[in-house]
Amino acid sequence: MSWLMRESSRATREVSSNGIVRRMVNLPRSIVGGFSRVMSHGIGRIGIAGRRDQNPIPNFPLQPLQDPLNAPEEWTFLSVYEQQYGSTHPLFYACQFMEALKIAEDEHKFMFMYLHSPQHPFTPSFCWGTLGSELVVQFLDANFVCWGALSDRGEGSQMAVTLQPASFPCCAVIAPAAGNSIAVLQQMEGPISPAELVEILQRTVEEQGLAFGNSRAKEEETTREKAMEEERKRARAKEEEKIRADRQLREEQDAAYLSALKIDKEKEKLNSLLPERRFQKPAGSSSKANYEKPRQNPGQKQFGRSKEVSTAIETANGS
Fold first, then answer.
1. In the structure, what pLDDT confidence band is assigned to residue 82 with cuts at 50, 70 and 90?
2. Which tens digit of pLDDT belongs to each residue from 104-147?
3. pLDDT tens digit string along 25-78?
4. What is the 3-class SS of 132-178, one letter each residue?
5. Beta carbons of 115 and 160 less than 8 angstroms apart
6. Averaged confidence pLDDT in the chain
7. What pLDDT shows up at residue 7?
8. What is the rounded distance in angstroms from the CA atom of residue 49 to the CA atom of residue 68?
9. pTM of the predicted structure, to 2 decimals
10. pLDDT at residue number 304
11. 258-276 residue pLDDT tens
12. Residue pair 47/57 in contact by the 8 Å Cβ criterion
């Protein structure tokens, strides 16, 4: 009962204008910075306790290491947890925080985060009785992407500093948000029974899911509208470029036509002048003929005179 009172008072302090419990939390830079490294290697989905995905991360061993604290950070929580409480638990993804958040976003689910404090007195009863309950396991596996971490190591300690829980065990319902933030839709601390946990989670999914879904729908609609506007801008730019190209082509074709037309007109003009020059007598042809005619007359006259002299001589001899 004490836990429910703490949860209720926390919800009252964090209630928003639309009656939905929700607060935004900025993620540590180290967690956000790790996301780019994670995405470069792809997102692997893997759970322990014989519930591994069909596509495990190649570099991870199939069995937990003997020393849990020497395991890779993504496996440390599961190794520590299973060494003490066994393999009956929700399917926790052995990955970094941002990986799990991305998986939840892709599957349109909320993320259930559990910060494990091994030395806290409330931890054993919560792990054995609540997280080990078949009711809780089935509900979380069906409706959430689960991620766990040690509260005093790695990303778990960073999330503990970010959420600042007053007690352990600490669970939270997380949703992705814009920028380097997350939406903490519900934060639960201290011991809680399986039925109480499922009831709170169910209410969170129903209430927060609708509000968060509407918010995401608006964000997606805004994104779609921006994408459509960008597409329209690209289409307009492409059409304008086509119009400019067509205009330039027409101008080049018109210039080529006018140039060819000018050449044709010059040719026609030249051809029209050639017949006139062909039939026109040269200016010096008549004077040349007149010049040649006088040169021939003296000879003809001399030849005539010689003929007359010879005739006169023949006449005289005959007489």
1. very high
2. 988 889 999 999 999 999 999 999 999 999 999 999 999 999 99
3. 777 666 665 544 444 444 444 443 334 343 334 343 334 444 555 566 778 899
4. CCHHHHHHHHHHEEEEEEECCCHHHHHHHHHHCCCCCCEEEEEEECC
5. yes
6. 75
7. 42
8. 15
9. 0.56
10. 57
11. 888 888 888 888 888 776 6
12. no
pLDDT at 17 (0 to 100): 36
3-state secondary structure the chain: CHHHHHHHHHHHHHECCCCCECEEEECCHHHHHHHHHHHHCCCCCCCCCCCCCCCCCCCCCCCCCCCHHHCCHHHHHHHHHHHHHCCCCCCECCCCHHHHHHHHHHCCCEEEEEEECCCCCCHHHHHHHHHCCHHHHHHHHHHEEEEEEECCCHHHHHHHHHHCCCCCCEEEEEEECCCCEEEEEEEEECCCCHHHHHHHHHHHHHHHHHHHHHHHHHHHHHHHHHHHHHHHHHHHHHHHHHHHHHHHHHHHHHHHHHHHHHHHHHHHHHHHHHHHHHHCCCCCHHHHHHHHHHHHHHHHHHHHHHHHHHHHHHHHHHC
Place of tokens 């322990």: 48
- Amino acid of residue 279: F
Which tokens go with 120?
């806290």
Q: Return the amino acid letter for 286.
A: S
As a whole number of angstroms, the distance between CA 312 and CA 306 comes to 10
Q: List the one residue out of 80, 82, 59, 81 whose CA is nearest residue 68.
A: 80
Tokens in use for 194?
Answer: 């399986």
